[in-house]
Specification:
Layout: E1 7-9, E2 24-26, E3 32-34, E4 40-44, E5 52-56, E6 61-62, E7 73-74, E8 84-88, E9 97-100, E10 104-110, E11 113-119, E12 127-131, E13 140-143, E14 148-149, E15 157-158, E16 166-170, E17 179-182, H1 185-190, H2 192-214
Antiparallel strand pairs: 1-5, 2-3, 4-5, 6-7, 8-9, 10-11, 12-13, 14-15, 16-17
Amino acid sequence: MLSLLIIFVGVTWTEPGSACRPKEYTASDGQCCPMCHEGTVVQRDCTVQSGTRCIPCEAGTYMNKPNGLKRCFSCSSCAPGFGLFVKQNCTQTSDTVCDVLSGYFCKSLTDTGCSTAEKHSVCEPGQRIKQPGTSRHDTVCEACQEGSFSPDGLNCTLWTECSASQTKVQEGSLTSDVVCRNVSIRHRYTLLVPVLSLPIVCMLLLTGYCKTRRAPP
């Protein structure tokens, strides 16, 4: 069974109404009593016959300064669901120290650790990650420059340039690449055939016409 440790702090009596000295607190009757040490709180105020009676903080509580309080502070909770984990456990004289899980950054940093965290921002399509998120700073995003695209919000890639044997069927955007299509040889030359054959046809027709005109009766 856990035994109750009671600590007595030596009495220093001060007349009611006068200012209490350092390391003293004003009791409910107006008298100045010696404060309890770190890790303890007041169980009973001092009297003329005895000093302040102090008791240690229970499990799950702490007191990190000399005090005249009747209750210890509750230990902070580092909830994984809020992006936190326990870096240092709570003791009678110090609070829990929390830090952030991977993928989160600290929004409220205190002397003893992080109290609130938030997930790193995700860059949108058309943007790139300019600066990755850390445990202390959020992700920094920036828009892709003209002539490049990003479908997933990670990196920007330059648009594809269609070759001489290709034709552009879709313009590029901040989120999608240029679409090129190969032009078939048959398709390229079908239009040239009528153009090239026209002089030949004309020549044949003229030749035939001339021969017909020169034939003897």
